[in-house]
Amino acid sequence: MDLRQLRYFVAVAERGSISVAAQTVHIAQPALTRQMQALEEELGTSLFERTSRGVSLTEAGKQLLIDANRLLDDTAAAKERAQRTGRGEIGHLSIALPVMQTLGPLIAEVLRSYRREVPGVSITLSHLLSATQLDWLSTGRLDAGFLLFRPSDDPVFEGLPVYSERMLLAYPAAWQWAGGRPKSLRDLNEVEFIWLPRNAAPLWHDKLIHCFFNAGFTPRASVLGVDSASMLTLVAAGMGCTVLPESAERIAPDVVKFMEVPDLNIVQHWELVWRADNRSSLLKRFVEEVSRYLAENPLQAARHRTRRA
Questions:
Q1: Full-prediction pTM beyond 0.85?
Q2: Which of 36, 42, 46, 91 has the most CB atoms at less than 10 Å from its CB?
Q3: Do the Cβ atoms of 302 and 166 come closer than 8 Å?
Q4: 3-86: which CATH topology?
Q5: What is the pLDDT of residues 10-22, one digit of tens each?
């Protein structure tokens, strides 16, 4: 007994006529008759009562009709689920967001667009530092993450550019600059600077050091933060100045001010990153939808980094 026989059986049972059912399922009447006879022989019981006006179901036939309809429905549902999974339309994704919530509105818009296009996929969100995201991606605990500082020459990962932003000098609003507002990084040599330990973000730390060295600036670091959020808190506490992405200005308290410094000329590049060997159709569809959203909304990122007046 196979699914084709069950479909033939249901057609005959519902129409009460082998000749009518044969036209419906597009096979010759003698062939359909042989299929029903073979089904009865396999089950060892009669399924039809044959009369001059057609066929009607025996008790065994009525029970088989119930079970056959359920099996065919389950088969159709399984086929649809497999097809939707193959198209990346159902399943579960684990996505990481940055700890610093400056990109929250932009990423929220991206995820809202994705959910609108692919409502059948559930998502688990985590807030993780870039280094932790890369570690979790490597071990399969994450499908993708929005992060900074991916090693550009590491073939393990692939990335989709999402957002870029400049760096600004963040300082306590109550500060009085004895020699006037700094015109370059070199002018910060004598002030307290909130620094980032190298093990917190090695690539970013080294990029900053290179920028500072070229500008003739040696940070006077007496206080350390572990990420942008903690460094912003330390600036708000009046413990020093630091460099932060321009989007941090949107969430900073009034006790923190920001300024541009001409030779602070480095840029943060946010990416959506995933493992290069992850062939999940769910992940592929997610990346496609994020890419489509960014292509259709080229000014969205600019709106999210608009500075306060």
A1: no
A2: 36
A3: no
A4: Arc Repressor Mutant, subunit A (1.10.10)
A5: 999 999 999 999 9
Domain 165-267 falls under CATH 3.40.190.10: yes
* Distance from C-alpha of 6 to C-alpha of 65, rounded to nearest angstrom: 9
* pLDDT at residue 250 is higher than 90: no
